[in-house]
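#struct-queue
[09:14] JT: dropping the first one here, sequence first, then the structure tokens:
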Amino acid sequence: MNMQPLPTVEELLWSWPAVCKAAKDEWAKDFALSIAKQSRHKNWTPSTKQHALMMRMVNEVYRHRGDFDGRDDFPLIED
């Protein structure tokens, strides 16, 4: 069983601008913008449900972008 720690809020917010841009339906856009606004408040932390949704949305962005998912992500420098 893989027991990796949950991403921190700071880690999720690092990717949040990409999530805001990638949100397709109205609900996702509203949620993403709401989190972006709330996160600017001092000592803000998401609820458990918000944190779970944030993780899903960040994961979805990277799943579709395909970042770092193959051997060809970084060209090899050969002598």
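[09:21] JT: and here's the second one, same format:
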Amino acid sequence: MPLLRVHLDSDRVTARRILQLHQEGKTHHESREAARDAVWRQGRTPAGEPVFVGITNGRRNVQLLYDVEVYSDTAP
């Protein structure tokens, strides 16, 4: 199944907190749901749970990165 990379806007403090949660083996449910919603808005159907990949290094505009498996038969 193809992977779709999702970029979610965030601020530096929140992004670092979410990164720390994932490093501790925990999940930030709100950002995971936001990633799933972003996939639906792009007209794709998620095939699994969003997987946290990391954060960008932006000074002002930090983004959370998620990979989401999508069904290949859904229209982009």
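[09:30] RK: nice, looked through the second one.
[09:31] RK: The chain has a mean pLDDT of 92.
[09:31] JT: good to know. The chain has one domain: 3-69.
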